[in-house]
Amino acid sequence: MYARERRRRILELLEASGRVTVTELAVDFDVTTETVRRDLDQLAAERLLVRVHGGAVPPSTAEVEPDLEARRTTNVAAKRRIARAAASLLPADPRAAVMLDAGTTVGELIPHLSGRRGPVITHAPAIAQGALVHTDLEVHVLPGRVRPTTQAAVGAGTVEAVGLLHPELVVLGCNGFDPSGFTTPDPDEAAVKSAMARCASRRIVLADSSKAGTRHLVTFATTAGIDALVTDDGLPAELAADLEEAGIEVLTA
């Protein structure tokens, strides 16, 4: 198959599935991964697709994901109120294991862990570093490739490590939510969040109301897969009612 034919086929697959991966294309076309990467780079240069880690997505679904530094200065007061309200959902037993997702809103929960003695597990080095300030905490950091954008570990190793654990509570962040579920732009990030939601006895999401009613590329949990959402008082009443009807406890700070 000539390069032109491969690239045409790549665009057809992209339109059909919404995402292509380097490894799958290499197997399908019986070529090296380097050849596929050159094809994707050429199509990206022509603005026919957008390169993401491990593959490509259509331009219409590609998103500019704000990095951690940008998010640290966004809606800070609301995030702190959300974390304070979320502290009421921490396990009553101070020895119970708690798993923390990456993200600045989840990070605001760290001071409220003071006095707890159980394991705190995270895939985000920044969260782990913050948790170490509380000397009674037993901090565990999950393995994986750290994404520069979120400074969180992702990949098959991270998902596998999460699947071996059974914390009492997982605290998740998200980029968007609506009555259908909770979403994030990056598939690798979503895979880790999904694994975290599956492994815990109780699952809560912390998200300010600016994320309400928005949907990103990948759903990591449906409303049936989350027990509680903690947000601020900017959440539209209609959306709050829809979420509660779906079985989610909604707390507003």
Briefly say what this structure is.
With 253 residues, the chain is an alpha/beta fold. The chain has helices spanning 3-17, 22-29, 33-45, 68-72, 76-86, 104-107, 125-131, 156-163, 187-199, 237-245; strands at 20-21, 50-52, 55-57, 98-100, 119-122, 138-141, 145-147, 152-154, 169-172, 176-178, 181-184, 202-206, 218-221, 228-231, 249-252. The strands form four sheets. It has a seven-stranded parallel beta sheet, sandwiched between helices. A three-stranded antiparallel beta sheet has the order 1-3-2. The protein has a three-stranded antiparallel beta sheet with strand order 10-11-13.
* Class per helix and strand makeup: alpha/beta
What portion of the residues fall into strands of 2 or more residues? 15-25%
| String of helices and strands | HEHHEEHHEHEHEEEHEEEHEEEHE
Report on the biggest sheet.
7 strands, parallel
Number of helices: 10
Mean pLDDT: 90
Low-confidence stretches: none
Side by side, the strands of the main sheet go 6-5-4-9-12-14-15
Task: Please characterize this protein's 3D structure.
It is a single chain. This protein is α/β, with parallel strands linked by helices and 253 residues long. The chain is 37% helix and 21% strand. The chain has a 7-stranded parallel beta sheet, sandwiched between helices. Strand 10 and strand 11 form a beta hairpin. Helix 2 crosses helix 3. It is globular, with a radius of gyration of 20 Å. The model has no long low-confidence stretch (mean pLDDT 90).
